[in-house]
Amino acid sequence: MTTAKPPVVSIRNLTKIYGNGFKALKGVDLDIREGEILALLGPNGAGKTTMISIVCGLVNPSGGQVMVGGHDVVRDFRETRSMIGLVPQELTTDQFETVINTVTFSRGLHGKSKNPALIEQILKDLSLWEKRDNMLRELSGGMKRRVLIAKALAHEPRILFLDEPTAGVDVTLRRDMWQVVEKLRATGVTIILTTHYIEEAEEIADRVGVINAGELLLIEDKTTLMKKLGAKQLRLELTHPLEVVPPGLEAFDLKLVDDGNALVHDYAADETHGNGHESRIAALMKALSAADVPLGDISTHQSSLEDIFVKLIGERA
Ligand SMILES: Nc1ncnc2c1ncn2[C@@H]1O[C@H](COP(=O)(O)OP(=O)(O)OP(=O)(O)O)[C@@H](O)[C@H]1O
C or N: which end of the chain has fewer Cβ atoms within 10 Å? Predict the structure, then answer.
C-alpha cells in the first residue's frame, strides 16, 4: 500500500482583511507538495505577497489555517519559521553590516549552530565570496539581491519562498539564481516563487497557481495546464494573396489573415493526441491542393503560458 506524502504546506480557507478593511485574501485553499517547484502567478495586488507573508509568520491571518511541516504557523511560529527561507522583494538589513556577518547572523537567528563552510559555499554559489567583507551599502542593487538569497539559505530551510526574485535583475544573476534553485531542488527543498514573468514559470515550475483579486483561480501541473488550456494554430503562408477562402474549404474553419497572405486554422492543443486531428489535417491538405491554393510555408504555433494567463485573467475581469 502506498500512502501519499502529506503536503509540506497546507493552506485552508485562508482570509486576510487588512486594518483598512481591504480583503486581500478571500478563502484560499492550497496544498504544496514536498520537493516541488511551484510558481504563483498573478497581477499586481493579487495577494501573493500577503499569502507568503502569512505562511512565513510575518502577517497574521484573519481566518483559516496554515500548517507547515505539520505545525500551525501562528501557534508554532518558531518551528515553522525555521523550516522556511524567505527571499523578500527588498533588503531591510543594517546597511553598515558586512555581507558575511549578515549571512552568518541570519543562520544564528534560527538557532542553528555555526557552519562557516556552509556559509562560504553559499557565498561562492552566489558570487559573493569576493565581497564578503564589504558593507551592504557598498554593494550594487544586484549584489544586494544575492545577499537576500544567501540570507534565506543560511539556515538550510526545507522550504524556500522567492518573492518576485528576478524583477529587475540582470541575466547573470538570473542564471546564478536558477542554478542555485536547481541545486536546492536536487536536495529536496520545496521552492515557491511568485513572478510576473510567465516564461520563468514555464521554464522551471512543476506546478503553476494563478492568483487574482485574493482568490486562487487554478492550480495545475504545468504540462497539464498547457495541454488543457493551450491553443494551437496551423498557419499556411500563401505565395500570392487571396481575397476570400477558396470554395471547397468551408468545412475546415480557416481564416484569411495578413491582407490575404496567410490562412490560419485554430485548434485545441490536446486535440493533437487523437487520430481525429491527424486525419482532419490530412483532409485539409488534400482539400487545399484540390482547390489550387498557392501554398508556401506551413508552420504551427502553440500558445504559451502567457497567452493562457492573459485569457484566464481576462475572462474574470
Ligand atoms: N498593510 C496593508 N494594508 C492595507 N492593504 C494592504 C496592505 N498590504 C497589502 N495590501 C493590499 O492587499 C492587496 C494584495 O497585496 P499583495 O502585496 O499581497 O499583492 P501581490 O500579489 O504580492 O502584488 P505585487 O505583484 O504587486 O507584489 C493589494 O491591493 C494591497 O494594496
Answer: N
